[in-house]
């Protein structure tokens, strides 16, 4: 994948690659950047390609300028299928399965994913933010899981939310459906940093550039280990991570990195 910027005519996603950073911009502001069938397909395809592209070191997911980062599922698109013979059951199962697969794809991707949030992130949009490895938001961003307000509990967004936020705080968001501001979202653990709107791009790219300068093999090993150990008991987590660290120590990049540190020079990563 060469350094380039592209917008496919049929795609709601803008894509650009520069200096190892793949930027995926949700580009359907007129539809509030909803996770429609087309949006999820475009995101999933871009992430799949990035997985095997050595030119990609870090992925940034943001949105075109506007009030909304992502409004979650496209409810109009979904509601049409209530006219299906099964009242939409098969379609709902399919679309929710696709969304769940997309969120898992972000978590299991061997490269860090950063969300840059400049607007409202609601329902599955909030789930998208929670699924990313890091999240940086403007001081005007808001977050909510409002399904309960329309008779539809945000059960799938709950999975990502509950893995990032304290249980009682997650339940507060899920049961009330109320929006929280960026300051509360940071306090809850949903986002990492809050920045003024005009500095969001600068700060997001600073993080991306810093991470992209690290060994890609080390990032891959570390991200996978982080999520796997979190699901284990304390004893099993230490056993697993000790084994991971042994293998990491034997990698060429670890040998190079430690050598460079001792010799007071910049490391030259080989990704192996």
**What order do the SSEs take from the amino end to the carboxyl end, as H and E?**
EEEHEEHHEEHEEHHEHEHHHH
Please state the overall shape, judged from the principal axes of the Cα atoms.
Answer: globular
Tell me the helix content: 40-55%
The CATH top-level class label of the largest domain: Alpha Beta
Total number of domains? 2
SSE-based structural type: alpha/beta
InterPro entries: ClpP/crotonase-like_dom_sf, Enoyl-CoA_hydra/iso, Enoyl-CoA_hydra_C, Mitochondrial_ECH-domain
Family: Belongs to the enoyl-CoA hydratase/isomerase family.
GO biological process, one term: fatty acid metabolic process
Pfam families: ECH_1
Task: Explain what the structure shows.
It is a single chain. The chain is α/β, with parallel strands linked by helices and 272 residues long. It folds into two domains: 4-212, 2-enoyl-CoA Hydratase, Chain A, domain 1; 216-262, Lyase 2-enoyl-coa Hydratase, Chain  A, domain 2 (Orthogonal Bundle), CATH 1.10.12.10. The chain is 47% helix and 17% strand. The protein is built from eleven helices and eleven strands. Strands 1-2-3-4-6-8-11 form a seven-stranded mixed sheet, sandwiched between helices. Helix 1 links the parallel strand 3 and strand 4 (58-63). It is globular, with a radius of gyration of 19 Å. The chain starts with a strand and ends in a 10-residue tail after the last helix. The model has no long low-confidence stretch (mean pLDDT 94). Keywords: Fatty acid metabolism, Lipid metabolism, Transit peptide. Pfam families: ECH_1. This is Enoyl-CoA hydratase domain-containing protein 3, mitochondrial. May play a role in fatty acid biosynthesis and insulin sensitivity.
């Amino acid at each position: 994948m060469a350094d380039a910027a592209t917008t496919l005519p049929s795609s709601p996603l803008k894509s650009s690659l520069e200096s190892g950073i793949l930027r995926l911009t949700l580009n359907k502001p007129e539809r509030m950047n909803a996770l429609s069938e087309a949006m999820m397909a475009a995101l999933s395809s871009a992430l799949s390609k990035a997985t095997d592209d050595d030119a990609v070191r870090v992925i940034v997911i943001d949105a075109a300028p506007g009030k909304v980062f992502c409004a979650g599922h496209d409810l109009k698109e979904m509601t049409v299928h209530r006219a299906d013979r099964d009242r939409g059951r098969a379609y709902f199962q399919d679309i929710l399965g696709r969304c769940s697969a997309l969120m898992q794809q972000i978590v299991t991707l061997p490269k860090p994913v950063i969300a840059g949030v400049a607007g409202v992130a609601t329902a599955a949009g909030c789930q998208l933010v929670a699924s990313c490895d890091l999240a940086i938001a403007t001081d005007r961003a808001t977050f909510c899981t409002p399904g309960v307000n329309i008779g539809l509990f945000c059960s799938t967004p709950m999975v990502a939310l509950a893995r990032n936020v304290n249980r009682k705080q997650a339940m507060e968001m899920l049961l009330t459906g109320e929006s929280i501001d960026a300051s509360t979202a940071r306090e809850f653990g949903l986002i990492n940093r809050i920045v003024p709107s005009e500095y969001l791009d600068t700060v997001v790219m600073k993080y991306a550039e810093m991470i992209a300068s690290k060994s890609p093999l080390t990032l891959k090993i570390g991200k996978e280990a982080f999520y796997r150990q979190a699901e284990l008991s304390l004893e099993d987590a230490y056993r697993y991570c000790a084994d991971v660290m042994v293998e990491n120590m034997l990698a060429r990049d670890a040998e190079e990195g430690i050598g460079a540190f001792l010799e007071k020079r910049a490391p030259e990563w080989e990704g192996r």
